């Protein structure tokens, strides 16, 4: 692994009984960059995270974090990586300061160093005023910031954020995005798994899409969108009974099969030349006396790319093959030395 590559995996394979969770996963993250790892539930994201953070051994393959082989030298790898899981791993009975001080001590810091680092992070994450309050009274966004601060106590060069905004309101999500941006500005390398495609769109320098244990696509957000091709024409029918006619017209002017949302009276179809297709669709509908409530013409989104690549929408699904086993927490020397 070259000095400019902070994280890499080579042909990772992991099975659980008859389920092949990983089937030869190769990843690379350049130093100081954000890689977004996307995939349907059960695709293998959490298993990959567990291997990189030394919580799970692969059946075969290799993984490196900051130049450290996670199998040959897991102790060094743990010191080079911080983990913030899907749910904020904070002790609700401790204050914000006490949570961070405890993590510092588990990493082997002296009392003075652990205290100093805790105060630095409380200031950085805008938690000074709540530092002496029990964390059980924190808002979701504050708890998430405290959890991220805990992942940074040892100043690791690599941070893994496993669905960091799960359960947060829009304000909490925006605050978390700001923190991630600050990490990257400081040169930290970030692996981000997320169910929110707009989150990957906003934060990730590059994206890897994983499905059924394999990386099926990689590139920037724009490169993945370009794979879908063309534009999207969307019409909303004025009356529910006109929806069938609108769908038929878009099927005729589009370059693919239309997608209909009956409850929203919305029909969307890929088109090769957007303005031309839009004008033709409206002309045909007007000739039949059909009115439309709304019209939109847009480029493919990351959601479109995800759906095209995996055949399903992003988000959680019942009965997923892979459980969310990380669950939150920091990799602490004292706890897992």
UniProtKB/TrEMBL annotation:
One of its GO terms (cellular component) is plasma membrane. GO terms for molecular function: ATP binding; ATP hydrolysis activity. Belongs to the ABC transporter superfamily. Drug exporter-1 (DrugE1) (TC 3.A.1.105) family. It comes from the Bacteria. Its main location: membrane. This is ABC-2 type transport system ATP-binding protein. It is a peripheral membrane protein. PROSITE patterns: ABC_TRANSPORTER_1, ABC_TRANSPORTER_2. The keyword Nucleotide-binding applies. Residues 7-237 form the ABC transporter domain. Keywords: Antibiotic resistance, ATP-binding, Cell membrane, Membrane, Nucleotide-binding, Translocase, Transport. It comes from Halopolyspora algeriensis. Residues 317-337 are annotated as: Disordered. GO terms for biological process: daunorubicin transport; doxorubicin transport; response to antibiotic. The keyword Cell membrane applies. InterPro entries: AAA+_ATPase, ABC_transporter-like_ATP-bd, ABC_transporter-like_CS, ABC_transporter_ATP-binding, DrrA, DrrA1/2-like_C, P-loop_NTPase. Residues 319-337 have a biased composition (Basic and acidic residues). It is found in: Cell membrane.
